[in-house]
UniProtKB/TrEMBL annotation:
Superkingdom, taxonomy of origin: Bacteria
InterPro entries found in the cross-reference section: RNA_pol_sigma-70-like (IPR039425), RNA_pol_sigma-70_dom (IPR014284), RNA_pol_sigma70_r2 (IPR007627), RNA_pol_sigma70_r4_t2 (IPR013249), RNA_pol_sigma_r2 (IPR013325), RNA_pol_sigma_r3/r4-like (IPR013324), WH-like_DNA-bd_sf (IPR036388)
Record-stated family: Belongs to the sigma-70 factor family. ECF subfamily.
Name of the protein: RNA polymerase sigma factor
Organism expressing this protein natively: Cohnella zeiphila
Pfam families: Sigma70_r2, Sigma70_r4_2
Matches recorded under SUPFAM superfamilies: Sigma2 domain of RNA polymerase sigma factors, Sigma3 and sigma4 domains of RNA polymerase sigma factors
Length: 176
């Protein structure tokens, strides 16, 4: 690719480079838009991806792998932005901010959560803890437990539904 670009006429090379960069930009936008929860951050994430690409371009071993490499960088930055946004939402109110910073969680909440988790079977409990307490991704859990990702996703989904059902059952007033 580099030799081909070097051998071209300068005016054609600039046009060719611009077309390739435009296409790369469109593909990165598409990847980031697909990954991001808050679509307002697309421009910022793509811009950060360009900065990373320019900083690390000399680490790219095969120039024909530029597009997948750039899309991977953009996707990873989008995941990081989602993670940062989740943390920001946890501190959205002033009264909640101090409570969220407190190293000691509410004992009643911990007792209730522990009780709900204790009613689940050990496998489901482990999956939910891996996912929501430790923050592992589904593919990481699947690799650790040597199970298909689809199985992990469905078991987590069913486990959450069981927790919600248990919570609703506990919140109902007793029958007279």
């Amino acid at each position: 690719m580099t030799n081909f670009l070097r051998d071209m006429e300068p005016s054609n090379r600039m046009e060719m480079d611009k077309d390739k960069l435009d296409e790369l930009y469109r593909q990165m936008i598409k990847v980031v838009r697909h990954k991001l929860i808050c679509k307002n951050d697309v421009g910022d994430v793509v811009q950060e991806a360009w900065v990373r690409i320019l900083e690390k371009i000399d680490t790219l071993r095969e120039s024909d792998k530029l597009v997948p490499w750039a899309k991977t960088i953009a996707a990873n930055l989008a995941s990081n932005a989602n993670r940062a946004r989740r943390i920001t939402y946890a501190y959205d109110g002033d009264e909640n901010y101090e409570k969220a910073l407190s190293p000691i969680p509410d004992p009643e909440l911990l007792t209730e959560l522990s009780d709900l988790l204790g009613r689940l079977d050990p496998v489901t409990r482990t999956l939910l803890l891996y996912k929501f307490y430790y923050g592992f991704r589904d593919d990481e859990i699947a690799a650790a437990l040597d199970m298909p990702v689809g199985t992990i996703k469905s078991r987590i989904h069913r486990g959450r539904e069981r927790l919600k059902a248990q919570e609703k059952k506990d919140d109902r007033p007793p029958d007279p």
